[in-house]
Design brief:
- The protein has 22 helices and 20 strands.
- The strands form three sheets. The protein has a six-stranded mixed sheet with strand order 6-7-8-3-9-10, with helices on both faces.
- Helix 9 (256-272) crosses helix 20 (578-614), helix 11 runs antiparallel to helix 21 (623-650) and helix 18 (520-563) crosses helix 20 (578-614).
- It is rod-shaped and about 130 Å long.
- The chain binds adenosine-5'-diphosphate (ADP) and magnesium ion (MG).
- Residues 50-51 line the site of magnesium ion.
Length: 660
């Protein structure tokens, strides 16, 4: 840059505001030229266009017509991001309203432009500038703990922290008493002596007289441009050797981390300063995630319990039941059910393919021992049940063929029943009463654990004959467990059993549906289909609450953006790009939903553990569901935060700064 090149040259600049109703031409075909090192005051009445001119000079606003030459180069048509860079590296701003960020300390406020510049050693540089403005003792104070004069000093420190070429000050003393105002002017004069070019807007002549050149405006036009007695002839400042392209092409990487931690700090600060509001807005996410976590845990627990029970049984088990295979959900016509008897069971047992059968009847009743009383599920079974359903007693013995034939009054207890009636006592050999009939206890069944809806150990088993004829008064069995000799002949066995029953019950062809034979895979499917239905339901609950939660987040983020319009304006003025603002608000909303999700996970896990403890359900919290919930809550934050963040990033710096 040659010494006589102006640092700033405006040619024929106009700016018209279109408010919809009227058009205000705030700046009319203005020319201006400013040399490096000058201290220029722009004067005029309120509304004369001073701020408009300063905004254009300071890359905050664009002229409608005319050309802007900065350091000799035409920058009129630079893009938004380049202008951000220029504001960040070449300009420093001091506003009448100071525009410090309230949740930041003096040091952090001062260092903010360095964040966007991607410079290191922020603390040191910011500290030095704070020393220059005489606030060394207040570095750690929050900006709202300072007086107006002190705040303006911080603003000055911030404006010079990136070593800009030019300082732009819009009524810097406007909100201060004259003594504080004079102090501010002295600081500016000091900076000017050290080489900073300063352009200052003021409407007070005594302030303007501190400058070495006074430009007066009236109705958007420059009416006079005079040098004061301070005028120094020589080119006092400038930064020889610096070119525009050095400023706007400065590499800008690897400092994401510092920015990220600033955004996180801002997010946490903004969330914690509106605790109730933030909590309410993340409630949707919280409930959704808690539901997902606990439902998945319950579903998985049930599935595991079922699988565990079934895998103990081997794969060559069949179940012959009355009723159609379509009996799930579809009602049958009257007379189409084939009832199975003990004789059917015996006949099936005689088939070649069959290794054993165990007919089963189900019922329930009150079991009494001494003064204790317990309602439980009662199953009448055949002797083969011990083997077929892996029910070898843990203590005592199973009933014998003889006892079955004699309809003996003997029973085996599940662990829960034994505990409820006998506590620590050994029940084997003791007598209990069921429906006033005395039963002798033979043994205790192996534990099955709990599935979701039912405690599998809350059961009592007795010979099927005893159950049918002495207790329940049933003529028919509910189903027959059949063990096939080997898994390969299961299909053949099914055919044999079908034919046998058709023959025994004299069924016509269309009555074949009146009973059905299931193998283990079908049994497993039937048991897990409930779990699957639950899975879909839970998916719907999750989707709806995430959607509702997301809308809540979007709403609150829009409010946040509105509230922080001036902060956004300030950040843009000191060099934040659109992308910086976008990312800042995305991080904030993602953080909000992440916090909601995390709380939801903890709540869901709590519910699950409680259910396991109190209702004795078997549950299993899967790592996968936690990862999934975390992932989804962040995704919801980003998705629903996008629109508010875009709104924020699109704000124009000048307008955002003026927002009340
Ligand atoms: P000064 O800083 O000298 O008081 P401004 O540059 O702020 O004057 O404003 C010049 C004129 O432009 C005023 O009439 C003002 O009402 C108008 N003006 C400024 N900014 C806007 C805006 N964003 N929208 C509409 N009119 C505006
Ligand atoms: Mg103004």
């Amino acid at each position: 840059m040659a010494d006589n090149t102006p640092i700033i040259e405006l040619k024929n600049i106009s700016r018209t505001y279109d408010t919809g109703k009227v058009k205000v031409t705030a700046l009319k075909e203005t020319d201006i030229s400013i040399n490096p090192g000058e201290f220029v005051a722009i004067m005029g009445h309120s509304g004369s266009g001073k701020s408009t001119l300063l905004s254009i000079l300071g890359f905050l606003d664009r002229p409608d017509t005319g050309k802007y030459y900065f350091m000799g180069e035409d920058i009129t048509s630079l893009g938004d991001d380049d202008l951000s860079l220029l504001r960040n590296h070449a300009a420093g701003f001091i506003f009448q309203q100071f525009h410090l960020l309230p949740r930041m300390t003096v040091l952090e406020n001062t260092g903010l432009p360095m964040l966007y510049a991607g410079k290191k050693d922020m603390k040191m540089a910011a500290g030095e500038k704070i020393d220059i403005v005489g606030l060394s003792h207040r570095k750690g104070h929050y900006s709202n703990e300072l007086s107006g004069g002190e705040q303006q000093r911080v603003a000055i420190a911030r404006s010079i922290v990136n070593e800009p070429l030019i300082l732009f000050a819009d009524e810097p003393t406007g909100n201060l008493d004259s003594k504080r105002g004079d102090e501010i002017i002295e600081i500016l004069k000091g900076l000017n002596r050290k080489g900073k070019t300063i352009i200052m807007v003021t409407h007070a002549m005594d302030i303007a007289l501190n400058a070495d050149r006074i430009i007066s405006m009236l109705d958007g036009e420059i009416i006079s441009d005079v040098k004061t007695c301070n005028w120094k002839d020589a080119d006092a400042g400038g930064k020889p050797g610096i070119h525009l392209k050095d400023i706007i092409s400065r590499p800008d990487k690897m400092y994401q981390k510092a920015r990220f931690s600033d955004y996180m700090k801002q997010a946490i600060g903004s969330i914690s300063s509106h605790k109730l509001r933030s909590f309410l807005s993340m409630l949707g996410i919280l409930i959704g995630v808690a539901a997902v976590i606990s439902m998945l845990a319950i579903g998985q627990g049930a599935k595991d319990a079922i699988t565990q029970q079934l895998s103990a049984l081997g794969s060559n088990l069949l179940m012959v039941r009355p009723g159609s295979t379509r009996s799930h959900g579809v009602s049958l016509e009257a007379g189409t059910v084939t009832r199975l008897t003990l004789n059917d069971a015996r006949a099936i047992a005689n088939l070649d393919e069959v290794a054993g059968v165990a007919p089963v009847v189900n019922g329930g009743g009150q079991v009494v021992h001494g003064n204790k009383n317990w309602g439980t599920r009662i199953m009448g079974v055949g002797t083969e049940h011990e083997k077929l359903r892996a029910a070898k007693p843990v203590t005592g013995r199973f009933f014998s063929e003889e006892e079955l034939r004699m309809r003996s009054k003997v029973a085996l207890l599940g662990l829960t029943v034994a505990r409820e009636l006998f506590g620590e006592e050994d029940p084997v050999g003791k007598t209990i009463k069921i429906n006033r009939i005395n039963f002798t206890i033979l043994g205790i069944l192996p534990t099955r654990g709990a599935s979701t809806y039912r405690d599998q150990d809350d059961i009592l088993i007795m010979p099927v004959t005893t159950a049918m004829y002495r207790l329940m008064g049933k003529e028919y069995v509910d189903y027959i467990d059949v063990e096939i000799k080997s898994p390969e002949i299961i299909d053949r066995a099914k055919v044999s059993i079908t034919n046998l029953i058709i023959k025994r019950h004299l069924l016509s062809e269309r009555e074949v549906d009146s009973f059905n034979i299931r193998d283990m895979t079908e049994i497993r499917d039937a048991l897990t289909s409930t779990t699957k239905t639950m899975g879909w339901l839970l998916g719907a609950v999750a989707a709806i609450s995430l959607l509702v939660g997301g809308i809540g987040i979007m709403n609150i983020m829009l409010v946040t953006v509105k509230e922080r319009t001036r902060e956004i304006g300030l950040r843009k003025a000191i060099g934040a790009t659109r992308r910086d603002i976008l990312i800042q608000f995305l991080i904030e909303s993602a953080f909000l939903t992440f916090a909601g999700g995390l709380t939801g996970i903890i709540l869901g896990a709590g519910i699950t553990v409680l259910l396991a403890k109190i209702a004795n359900w078997s549950v299993k919290i899967s790592f996968f569901s936690i990862i999934l919930s975390t992932f989804f809550s962040i995704i919801v934050g980003i998705t629903f935060g996008l629109w508010p963040a875009i709104q924020a990033s699109k704000l124009k710096p000048v307008e955002a700064l003026r927002y009340e």
